[in-house]
Amino acid sequence: MSTPDAASAGAPAATARTPHDLPDVTGLVVGVLGGTGPQGRGLAYRLAKAGQQVVIGSRSADRAAAAAAELGLGVRGADNAATAAESDVVIVAVPWEGHAELLTSLRAELAGKIVVDCVNPLGFDKQGAYALKPEEGSAAQQAAALLPGSRVTAAFHHLSAVLLEDREVDEIDIDVLVLGEERAATDVVQALAARIPGMRGVFAGRLRNAHQVESLVANLISVNRRYKAHAGLRITDV
């Protein structure tokens, strides 16, 4: 994964909700698949620092354990299958190239879980980053197709791994766009985002709207390269 830095029944509400309206997620275990990579490791650190129970996953249990020990804060490491099985909410932060294979292999372990896909399908050439269009429409839609027994959402696409991992940065000033089909699931993800100082989770539509959210990362990469920044997003008037 590369990073930049008229509703029908059951649809999530169109308006943003304040943290006081959101569920208590403090007791949930959050697993991070791809937790040894920059984005996954950074998310694991921020959630653990906020008091969340976190397990990071990797193909290698030893590598995950070593990364967890480096992070501290009570973070645990395990292989991907154990991480998925032990967690209530599972963040998918793996490279796009391995996305389908990994999720297919973990279909049983992820059944019934809230899955948060933050993968951005991107290509790179001499002109810079550009968005790829998966056959299913987006990485999140691919996840939903591969995991029919899971509660798939999409979020955390526009976060700078550099800022996430920087222990001298106390707050990250950004809105996290959250997409999904089920309001209860998107509320949980919004609540997790709100636990990180400076962040706010904002509902941004159903999964069919995920492609443009994922694609926007290519624009943010261009912004960051031009201005030597770690740009993110803020949604106004909500």
Summarize the structure.
Keywords: Oxidoreductase. It is built from nine helices and ten strands.
Structural descriptors:
alpha/beta; eight-stranded mixed beta sheet; two-stranded antiparallel ribbon; globular
Q: How many distinct folded domains?
A: 1
Helix- and strand-based class? alpha/beta
Proportion of residues in extended strands: 15-25%
Instruction: Give the total of beta strands.
Output: 10
Oligomeric form:
single chain
Pfam family, one: F420_oxidored
GO biological process, one term: copper ion import
GO molecular function: coenzyme F420 binding; cupric reductase (NADH) activity; ferric-chelate reductase (NADPH) activity; NADP binding; oxidoreductase activity, acting on NAD(P)H
InterPro entries: NAD(P)-bd_dom_sf, NpdG, P5C_Rdtase_cat_N, STEAP_metalloreductase
What does this structure look like?
This protein is α/β, with parallel strands linked by helices and 238 residues long. It has one domain: Rossmann fold (3-Layer(aba) Sandwich), CATH 3.40.50.720. The chain is built from nine helices and ten strands. The strands form two sheets. The chain has an eight-stranded mixed β-sheet. Helix 4 packs parallel to helix 6. About 5% of the residues have low confidence.
How would the blueprint of this fold be written?
Elements: E1 29-33, H1 38-49, E2 53-58, H2 61-71, E3 76-79, H3 80-86, E4 89-92, H4 99-105, H5 107-110, E5 114-117, E6 122-125, E7 128-131, H6 139-146, E8 151-154, H7 161-165, E9 174-180, H8 183-194, E10 199-203, H9 210-227
Parallel strand pairs: 1-2, 1-4, 2-3, 4-5, 5-8, 9-10
Antiparallel strand pairs: 6-7, 8-9
Protein name: Pyrroline-5-carboxylate reductase catalytic N-terminal domain-containing protein
Keywords: Oxidoreductase
Organism: Streptacidiphilus jiangxiensis
